[in-house]
Amino acid sequence: MGKTEDRELVENLRKELNYHNYRYYVLDDPVISDSDYDQIMNRLRNLETMNSDLISQESPTQRVGAPPADRFQRVEHPKPMLSLANVFDYGELVSWYQRVSRLLKRDSFDMVCELKIDGLAVELTYEDGVLVRGATRGDGFHGEDVTINLRTVKSIPLVLLGTSSGRLDVRGEVYMTRHSFEKLNHERGGKGLALFANPRNTAAGSLRHLDPSVTASRDLKIHVYSLGHASGSAMPETHWRILEQLGALGLRISAYNHLCSTLAEVKKFIRYWLVQHKKLDYPTDGVVIKIDSIDYQEYLGVVGREPRWAVAYKFPAQQAVTKILDIGVNVGRTGSLNPFAIMEPVIVGGATVRKATLHNEEDIQRKDIRVGDWVTVERAGEVIPKIVGPITSRRSGREKIFKMPNHCPVCKSLVVKTHNESAHRCPNALCPAQFAELLRHFVSKKAMDIDGVGDQWVKSFLEQEIVTDLGDIYSLTKDKLLGLERMGEKLADRILSSIEASKKRPLSRIIFGLGIPHIGSEISDVLADRYPDIELLTSASREELENIPGIGPSISHSICSYFQMESNVEVLDKLKKGGVRLNGGCEKPHGKLAPLLGQTFVLTGTLVSMSRDRAQSVIYDLGGTTSNTVTMKTRYLIVGANPGSKLDKAERLGVEVLDEKQFSGLIRANGEIVD
Q1: Whole-prediction pTM value?
Q2: What's residue 243's pLDDT?
Q3: What's the rounded mean pLDDT across residues 226-232?
């Protein structure tokens, strides 16, 4: 590539980055992912490195961000709020560490690791301990004065604790928790308002809103992560001790900061948070590593727009932008028609994503998602891909509005939709797609736990017609299994052994495995406890069922409708004849083995010390039951992080509330070991 071509490419890359800087920093409406932006920036930086005469002060590589918006007063930062160089793997981290070692002429030095919160960077200025100004990062040298809005953030102290003289400039990240974000979107959806795309953009837009009352209503939070400038008071000589002192002044410091003396400790911290950050209630996109010594920081200095003494290890992107090629529809085990997006392949959270759930037609309409749209994709819980929303600014006018089909895509039956449900359904119980999903559900670990029967064998069972309903599983023989292509003797024996073991599963697992609409594992436990024989459940009336805590009209209707169908009754008869035990309730312990017998527990919020499944299992093992609904009969409400409305209801009803520590103490006191 010649000099002319290099110059032209450099100018084009600069224009592209300037546009994305404007979208991200000024409009708070990015149209590409962070990883895509980093790729463009790295390409430009490499070209400028190879052609030093092409470097100019106007290049995005030579500045921190974009100019502030005109609607706020412009303020100057006493010290520039610089951005950080990024590394994306351990090899790049080692290279950074080695460069620092060479410059310091030291083999080892202390480092501070901090979670990188994905929010909006701000600077708070205190004079003699009183908050006098708050500003956004802006272009790093000048920001926007948003003092009146920052004063509404409750985690920002208006007056520092203790005595403080002189001026103190501190930097932090303002953000919105996922819980607050979801609550806000729920409220907006109920009012027919447009939904926000993600917590980061919502926090940024809220902080820069012209009406402070709107900012105050958005439940923003802050973590302070560094000292910008100090005068009039002596400050410690290490970053770690500075953070401790800032915390002592009443500023909110992350509890997860960690002081490391070796690179191995840094790597261990990163490896831990690569997984654990997904459990946090606020968005994080990496780990920031800083040299602890302030003297070392000053000695290392800054190169371009980035300090040499710090680096950001970026987690794999959890969001990405791609294009919807088409919208398909599959049929679930209850007959629900489930739309999904077929997209251009894109890497999200380290995995290649080609499809994403779209839930139902109403959700598609609410988000205004169309075939041909460019969309933001994320992995919900960093596992299941979902579409956040379309990027309407990239529409060409050729996008197509999606409509649900009138006929089942598998059996061609006429699709039905009831007024009280958002889902479209295939009413044909013999629809092959429904039964395939039902069979997968029935043999799954949480249901009958029939080992060895994966998707491949479910497909083979159906193709060879050796299983036409759930009862047929218990008439399978070794000869029938060996008649399937690629089925070996060991696997056949394993499957048959697992089938035999499944005959003694608790009744709750059987009820759950039947795949009755709206019946999850918790309700199955409740039903098995109330009706210890399946025949009692089949004859239960809607009124009787609705007297059970946690069971409303939709669930009672679903149960009664299921058992009124002759084909389902025939399946139960087959199961009974096949040796499946259809009585025995939940197999609860009794007497001294059941100290929590008769006590109902409700769980809310996110549990940290154990999974919700584990907590429910412990309660069950001690004789208790769990419910989704708080009533007067509820004995305890177990509260984790970010509890919902159940906590308010429990307090109104006088239900005893236990946090995780108290819950662990309760179950230990009753003889259960908590790991």
Answers
A1: 0.50
A2: 96
A3: 90
Question: Left if phi > 0, otherwise alpha if psi is -120 to 50, otherwise beta: which for 509?
Answer: alpha
Q: Which residues pair with 641 in a beta bridge?
A: 606
Q: What is the DSSP letter of 484?
A: S
Q: What is the CATH number of domain 3-62?
A: 1.10.287.610
Q: 75-314: CATH homologous superfamily?
A: DNA ligase/mRNA capping enzyme (3.30.470.30)
Cβ pair 542, 556 in contact under 8 A:
yes
- Residue range 280-300, pLDDT digits in tens: 999 898 999 999 999 999 999
CATH 3.40.1030.10 fits 319-409, yes or no: no
Active-site residue 116, yes or no?
Answer: yes
Encoded tokens for 481: 């299994």
- Give the pair of three-digit tokens for residue 220: 């923003």
β-partners of residue 167 are 127, 231
Calpha distance 610→463 (Å, rounded): 42
pLDDT (tens digit per residue) in 30-59: 777 777 788 888 888 888 888 877 777 667
Residue 9 has pLDDT above 70, yes or no: yes
Q: Are strands 600-604 and 310-314 parallel, antiparallel or unpaired?
A: unpaired
The span from the CA of 408 to the CA of 410, in Å, is 5
CATH code for the structural domain at 591-669: 3.40.50.10190
What six digits make up the tokens of 112?
């501070």
Alpha helices in 373-503, H assignment, sequence order: 432-443, 455-463, 478-482, 489-502
- 3-state SS of 487-530 is CCHHHHHHHHHHHHHHCCCCHHHHHHHCCCCCCCHHHHHHHHHH
| 422 against 122, higher pLDDT | 122
Which of 350, 568, 398 lies closest to 469, judged by CA?
568
Q: If pLDDT is split at 50, 70 and 90, which confidence band does 329 have?
A: very high
Fold designation for 432-506+534-577: DNA polymerase; domain 1 (1.10.150)
Q: What is the pLDDT of residues 385-412, one digit of tens each?
A: 889 899 998 999 999 999 999 999 988 8
The residue from 116, 290, 314, 367 that is catalytic is 116
Give the pLDDT score at 1. Answer: 54
Cα separation, 550 vs 527, in Å, equals 10
Q: Of 462, 470, 466, which Cα lies nearest the Cα of 478? A: 466
**Domain coordinates of the chain in residue numbers?**
3-62, 75-314, 319-409, 432-506+534-577, 591-669
CB-based contacts of 178-187 (< 8 A; 24+ apart in sequence): 178/281, 178/282, 178/283, 179/281, 179/642, 180/218, 180/219, 183/219, 184/218, 184/219
Phi-psi category of 471—alpha, beta or left, where left has phi over 0 and alpha has psi -120 to 50?
A: alpha
| Angle at alpha carbon of residue 490, lines to 485 and 495, rounded to 5° | 80
CA distance 560 to 545: 9
Structure tokens at 580: 């499946």
Say whether 392 sits in a helix, a strand or coil: helix
